[in-house]
Amino acid sequence: MADITRVLVTGHNGYIGSVLVPCLLQAGYEVVGLDTGYYSQCTLVEDTKNVSWIRKDIRDLTPADLQGIDAVVHLAALSNDPIGNLRWEWTEDINYKASVRLAELAKAAGVRRFLFSSSCIMYGMATASVVTEESPLDPKTDYARSKVNSEQAISKLADESFSPVFLRNGTIYGISPRMRFDTVLNDLVGRAVTTGKVTLHSDGKPWRPVIHVQDVARAFKAVLEAPTALVHNQAFNTGADHLNHQIIELAEIVTKAVPGCTLEVRGDSGADQRTYKADFGKFKRTFPEFRFEWTAQKGAAELYETFCRIGLTHETFTDKRFTRLKWLQHLLDTGRLDTSLRWMKNSVKNGASIDGVKIIPLRQIVDERGKIMHMMKATDPHFQSFGEIYFSTAWPGTIKAWHIHQTMTINNAVISGRAKLVMYDLRPGSPTKGTLQEVFIGEDNYCLVQIPPGIANGYKAYGDKQVVLANCASEPHDPQEMLRLDPLTPEIPYDWAVKHG
């Protein structure tokens, strides 16, 4: 569409979005990003894009967010089956309900084109030799069902002024700033480089259509620019017929791309047997000039060369930042996300938190006599060992900081009053070294904060009464084990003053 100039890309800080945005910028579009920031720290290679960014949960959009937007490319989603299987409500709320609401807001705001990033996974265990856009949809997972339900609901919104298009991507691979190692070809090359072995848990017979992330970006651009009559309210399998591969073929391609690696086919009975071979004839007929520039062979070579250039280690390859389920679980475990996958209000400094710090909500049982306040028991999954429990008190406005334990893990909870607990990561080699984290705990937020060794910590009492802070320490207190710094030391870049405004 020639009249599209301003494009909103949701999920622009994700795996696809980090590649799509530069593609659109280079083509001359004005791009606005919208992202909640789940994966802002999950960077493998440099991210050079620089666009205006609406930092917001996709579930919390307002009509104002869509004003002045000509087209929407909707990528934001919980992006694979394991996450959907973890808690189905997340997938329904974010992938389905929020997607439909976004489309409704976009239509009301006068957005003319709406590109929805869908998936070939919705065909399920396809019994046909190949699946076309007209094949029966047979979603087997909550993730796949969310895509089917979204397509069907958004399609009903189509009219002469609102033109949705659905791009059903195959399995995506290739280098992106916000890298993923939980897709098949990225995983196979990563394992080959870091372990010297390609291991297939299945028999390798399932089919997958694979597509490079750069070709995905170019395909979205082509659909964005197409005349309305050509694409209006249609679904497209996005790819080319020669990009269908059996898993065993992909494994063999990797063994040729990575010198010296070996192939092991285990054929485990419980391995993933989902199979679908897609027909891409409709995309080819609609966009006869479009060429998919990447093959699996070329893509495997790119992955190998990049991994060698950056010195990819097994530690980095298995790092939780690059597997979506592991990273979201980390954000939950460290108290940065609540149980609805929204940022915790006490997760400050644009969501920054310290690796290894855990925030665990605690239970209170209240009746007319008073209450019982739980803190920790030996069967808790975060319990390590018991050294001693002691209490620290402070009057309002008092600061007690900084303390740095060398071997002790501390478990703090405020049982009376209110405190601002502040931590600063001093650990050499920590992925969050230099990060500050604030947590407001006490009567408004009864929780336990677990702080590993090597992290400077302290608290400031606020409110109108004395604070009583409990510490269930992993070992007995030893003055020689703890380092102390002045609360106003310039070594830690923190201002204890109240932040007005």
Attribute tags:
501 residues, alpha/beta, Rossmann fold, seven-stranded parallel sheet, 24 strands, globular
Explain what you see.
The protein has 501 residues and is of the alpha/beta class. Helix content is 26%, strand content 26%. The protein contains 13 helices and 24 strands. The protein has helices spanning 17-26, 81-86, 88-108, 142-155, 184-195, 213-225, 228-231, 247-257, 281-286, 296-310, 314-317, 324-333, 348-351; strands spanning 6-10, 30-35, 52-55, 71-74, 113-119, 163-169, 171-173, 197-200, 207-212, 234-238, 244-246, 262-265, 358-361, 364-367, 370-373, 388-394, 399-405, 410-416, 418-425, 436-442, 447-451, 455-462, 467-473, 482-484. It has a seven-stranded parallel β-sheet, sandwiched between helices. A five-stranded antiparallel β-sheet has the order 13-21-18-23-16, with no helix packed on it. A hairpin with a 2-residue loop joins strand 14 (364-367) and strand 15. Helix 1 (17-26) crosses helix 6 (213-225). The two termini are 44 Å apart. The relative contact order is 0.10.
